[in-house]
Amino acid sequence: MTDPSTNHGNDLENAQSISVVQVPSLSQPIQVQSVIQSNQPSVIQTAGPNVQTIQVVRKRREILSRRPSYRKILNDLSSPVAVGKIDEESNSSQSQDGDSSDVATNLSSTGIQYQQVPVSVVPSGTIQISNDGTAGTQGLQTLTMTNANPSTTSATTGATIVQYAQGPDGQFYIPGTVQAYQIAASGTLPQGVVMHTTGSPMSSPQQLSEEAARKRELRLLKNRDAAKECRRKKKEYVKCLENRVAVLENQNKTLIEELKALKELYCQQEG
DNA sequence: AAAACATTGCGTCAGAGATT
DNA sequence: AATCTCTGACGCAATGTTTT
Predict the structure, then answer these.
(1) Residue A65 CA to B16 C1' — how many Å?
(2) Kind of pairing, strands A141-147 and A159-166?
(3) Disulfide check for A160: which of A60, A186, A201, A202 has CB 3.0–4.6 Å away?
(4) Per-residue model confidence as pLDDT tens digits over A155-213
């Protein structure tokens, strides 16, 4: 399904088609295999025996407007035929529900296998792990944290995922760093869940790079979940539209029949 | 049965828009 | 202004379906 109101990625779409370009430093034209990046110096990888990487400055997209979120669109569909709205509160727990079968997740950037373990957060801020027995690999696991704290706000009923490894000291570690992190109760931190608590101030280049790696892992983790959530909402949105189409088609059919009957009645009275 | 093609879902990146 | 969220796009892998 495409939305004509957005030009998102138009130039990329064009660029993705295989094409031949002439590069001054090369005697032969080359076949463009893929273009990564759109409006900054882009990387073009060439096909053929002499694979090369070329920097190309691409023209900035002229019109860039993001379409409204599916949640917004659905909630705007307040007409009677709109079937169901996306519930914001239920969204936060979907990625766990929908992907519960996805117990072992391969993090492609690291090759590390993560495991999902049900966890409940208790008021003290500690966590309870009810390991389901499935063996974790490489000591790293993904927690699904459900806030079971009745004393905190009832709005924080969602579940949050955090990836961790538990050290012999009982502390929790996340990939890409040897720093210890305290797992905070969901609700005190939005989605982030992981809070840096120990260790000396970042000073050495190694620590800085570890910090950067940790931030990257965290960002990827969040984005992974966001993508799952987005796909789920998109599916729901499409289903909603399909339902809407079905309802409108029915209405249309009924109205046509009604019009036909009225016409016949009118003709009889005229005649 | 094997090959070719289609579909589906995932992780990642980029970037617009929202939030802090 | 910095950070976060959301979503289109891409490539990849797994799976399903059709064709040879």
Answers:
(1) 7
(2) antiparallel
(3) A186
(4) 222 333 333 433 333 333 333 332 223 232 223 233 333 333 333 444 577 777 777 77
Specify which residues A147 forms β-bridges with.
A121
Alpha-carbon gap, residue A163 to A146, rounded angstroms: 14
A101: nearest nucleotide, CA–C1' criterion: B9
Q: Break chain A down into helix, strand, coil percent, rounded to 5.
A: 35, 25, 45
Residue A247 CA distance to nucleotide C10 C1' (Å): 35
Protein A55 CA to nucleic acid B12 C1', in Å? 21
Q: Which amino acid is at A238?
A: V
Indicate if CB(A66) is under 7 A from strand B.
yes
**Over its length of 271 residues, how does chain A's per-residue pLDDT go in tens digits?**
333 333 333 332 233 322 323 232 222 233 333 333 332 333 333 333 333 322 222 222 222 334 555 555 555 544 333 333 333 333 333 333 333 333 233 333 333 333 333 332 222 222 323 333 333 322 333 333 333 222 222 222 233 333 343 333 333 333 333 222 323 222 323 333 333 333 344 457 777 777 777 888 888 888 888 888 888 888 888 888 888 888 999 999 999 999 999 999 999 988 7
**Closest residue by Cα to residue A26 from A62, A51, A3:** A51
Strand B contacted by A28 CB (< 7 A) = no
> Residues 6 or more apart from A152 whose CB is under 8 A from it?
A123, A185, A187
* A40 CA, B14 C1': Å apart: 10
The alpha carbon of A143 is separated from its chain's Cα centroid by a whole number of angstroms, namely: 18
